[in-house]
Specification:
3-stranded mixed beta sheet, 3-stranded antiparallel beta sheet, globular, GMP Synthetase, Chain A, domain 3, alpha+beta, 139 residues, 2 domains
């Protein structure tokens, strides 16, 4: 079992430390008592989602010998209007450049979303998750 520790630094700024020991900073906007000095917790979670699935996709494509020149993941989210304002929809747009066959990219994305990324499979329990991809030539 892993352990993550999150501590109040000051005001509404928090510092999280996971097993790796690296810090994840979080803060609130000045409207609610924060200093607006770091990302919001939901933003951190969505960035973690992008990092998780991105690492899967790159790893799978490397095993297929079709590594892209670049990978960018845009995550569109919708939240319920009422508290706790859960995320109800997530749409991931994977943009790659390079000579990556569409079938390889689709397979890598599908494997990440259905099997390998624990963050997306956890979020899929409460949100509808969809995806698409775009392949652009190197410039």
């Amino acid at each position: 079992m892993g352990k993550t520790i999150v501590k109040l630094v000051e005001g509404m700024r928090f510092a999280g430390h996971g097993k790796s020991g690296h810090e994840v900073a979080m803060d609130a906007s000045s409207k609610v008592g924060g200093a607006d000095s770091a990302a919001r917790p939901v933003e951190v979670m969505l960035c973690a989602l992008g990092g998780c699935t991105g690492m899967d996709v790159i790893s799978i494509l490397r095993k297929m010998n079709t590594e892209p020149t670049s990978l960018r993941i845009e995550i569109e989210d919708e939240q319920a209007p009422d508290y706790p304002k859960v995320i109800t929809k997530l749409h991931l747009i994977y943009s790659v450049t390079g000579e990556v066959p569409a079938k390889n990219l689709k397979k890598a994305i599908d494997l990440s979303l259905a099997k390998y990324c624990p963050i997306v499979t956890t979020l899929a329990g409460v949100a509808r998750v969809t995806s698409e991809y775009v392949i652009e030539p190197d410039q």
